[in-house]
Structure prediction request, 114 residues.
Amino acid sequence: MRTLILALGFIVAALPVRAQTIAPAEVKAHVGQTVTVQAAVSDVHTGRAGVTFIDIGGAYPDNDFAAVIFASDRAKFPNTGDLKGKTVAISGQVVLYQNRPEIILKTADQLKAN
Prediction:
C-alpha cells in the first residue's frame, strides 16, 4: 500500500502545473508566479535592439504589462505584427523590469491568439 501511495505521489508531482488565469491589471501582484493573462493586445512594437513588446492593458507607458520577445527568439513568433486588437493568452513567469511587470516569451506555446 505504501508503495502505491508513493508511486501516486510521484505521478502527481510530475504533472504539469496549470497557470492561474488573471486579468492584466492583476499581473504585478503575481511577480514570481507562473500565470496566464487573457486579454486584447493594445500595441505591438519592436525596439532598435530587435526586442518585440506586446502591450496588454494599454499602450506603453500606460500598459498593465508587456510580453517581451528577445531578438534571439523572434523567429519563433512570426505573426506578432498581426496581434494588435486580437485577444491572446500569454503564459509564463511574471518578472519585474524597471518596476514594470513582464512575461518573457521563449517558446511559441506561451502565446496563443484566439
Strands lie at 20-22, 34-46, 52-56, 65-69, 87-97, 100-104, 111-113.
